[in-house]
Write a structure and sequence with these properties.
Order of helices and strands: HHHHH
Distance between the termini: 70 Å
Largest sheet: none
Number of helices: 5
Length: 124
């Protein structure tokens, strides 16, 4: 019984410390987009250079979907698939793209622009 009483003030102080500090924490949303991404301003260049650069990819007439213009892309754009392939798996453009004159990877800045564009529901 003496051990419980001896540690109770310590436990009480620890509880006060833990719970009192909770409201003082600065909460930062690490996923907040700091870029205003839109197709016309900063996405079109990325799409044309990385997705619609070759007839076998996402250019006009492609069986994978035509991403050569905003109006052609939107009816075939699957937001979940876009996020999964481009932002999470990062396998778009595919590794073999350089064999047909395309890029092999998107830069960190390009990925951030595309992430913000996706999170804002793909504005034109």
């Amino acid at each position: 019984m003496k051990n419980i009483l001896r540690f109770s003030p310590l436990a009480a102080m620890l509880a006060v410390f833990l719970f009192s500090c909770d409201s003082d924490r600065l909460v930062v949303d690490r996923d907040e987009c700091l870029i205003e991404a839109s197709y016309d301003v900063n996405v079109k260049e990325i799409i044309n250079a990385s997705c619609a650069y070759h007839p076998e990819c996402h250019s006009q007439g492609s069986s994978f979907g035509d991403y050569s213009t905003y109006d052609r892309m939107m009816p075939v754009l699957n937001p979940q698939k876009f996020d999964d392939r481009v932002l999470i798996a990062r396998n778009m453009p595919p590794d073999y793209a350089d064999e047909v004159g395309g890029p092999t990877m998107l830069t960190t800045e390009q990925l951030e622009i595309l992430r913000c564009w996706s999170e804002d529901n793909f504005p034109e």
